[in-house]
Amino acid sequence: MGVEGCTKCIKYLLFVFNFIFWLAGGIILGVALWLRHDTQTTSILYLQLGDKQAPNTFYVGIYILIAVGAVMMFVGFLGCYGAIQESQCLLGTFFTCLVILFACEVAAGIWGFVNKDQIAKDVKQFYDQAFQQALMADSDASNAKAVVKTFHETLECCGPDTAIGAISALWREDLCPKGFQKILVQNSSCHKKIDELFSGKLYLIGIAAIVVAVIMIFEMILSMVLCCGIRNSSVY
Question: What is the pLDDT of residue 67?
Answer without folding.
Answer: 87
